[in-house]
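Weekly puzzle thread! Below is a chain. First person to post its structure in token form gets bragging rights.
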Amino acid sequence: MTWSTTLALFAQQPKAAEKAGGAAGLSSTNIVILIVAGIAVLIFLVFLFIFFSFIRLWIQALLTRADISIFNLIGMKLRNVDYAMVVRQKIALVQAGVRVTTEDLESHYLARGNVPKTATAVIAAHKAGLDLPWKTAAAIDLAGRDVLEAVRTSVNPKVIDCPDPAKGKQFLDAVCRNGIQLLAKARVTVRTKLERLVGGATEETIIARVGEGIVKAIGSAHDHKEVLANPGMISQTVLHNALDAQTAYEIVSIDIAHIEVGENIGAKLQGEQAAADLRVAQAEAEKRRAAAVAREQEMRALVEENRAKVVEAEAQVPQAISEAFKTGRLGVMDFYNMKNLQSDTSMRNNIAAMTGGNENQPGRG
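Winning reply:
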């Protein structure tokens, strides 16, 4: 390599360095642009995802005047709310003419309420002309009652059997004043009172009150024939007692579906009372007999005691005679006269015993 060639190479190095520096600066700018473009594309894709996720529901709400914005949908999504279901129910309520806010639906969902059933019940009540606000329906649903069934019962009253066959009892037992038992079965038509559904008594209370009223009405009848001839008197008597007070139902009618004659309870009770009286009398008689036997035994013991006293007294006679001999108050002739008298008395007693004790027989002086 010559000297002139070496100088030419050194002269070309600064130009090559300038070209390399320009290329490096261009590469850094491109990288920044690419990063910004990637972020923009990512934001655009997120926007498209959100837009296409909620656009259909938002358009439905917009066209039906449901007043639900995109931000409401995003907020429900973030709060883990089934926003599609809420939108559908809000649209149904608005189309039915029911005024309710999105927050009411969302809060009821978050309270673990059944939003579709509650919305259906409110719509049905509104169409039927019943006053059922959303808050009342939500409270009924959260209380564990079937709000939709309650609305259906308000529109279409249902029939309850009294007594309830599911409890194992087929008839109500009641006894008239003449002692005849009547077996009755009633059918109670009730309508739900929506304003008292929360806190009001249930069907069991209606059945119990109606059963009590029927038993009372039959028990106040003088003759069972009156009840058999006019069963409607029972229904009229029971209906006038306001049995549906403080309950969730209104009694529409009470109809006696079946009534029949049972046992003669009065005669049965009288027979049992007579048997009881007989047992009491027998017990009293047995008590008196036992007392008489005891008294007889006491008298026998007393007789034996008196006999013992007589024997004791007779045993003292010889001692007295001996004492009389010793003291000189009794002589020998007196003793023999006493013995003769005793012998004569004994002979007379024996003769009386042989003749039967009749001293007026022939041959006797």
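Puzzle host: Confirmed. Bonus trivia for everyone else. The first strand starts at residue 158 and ends at 162.
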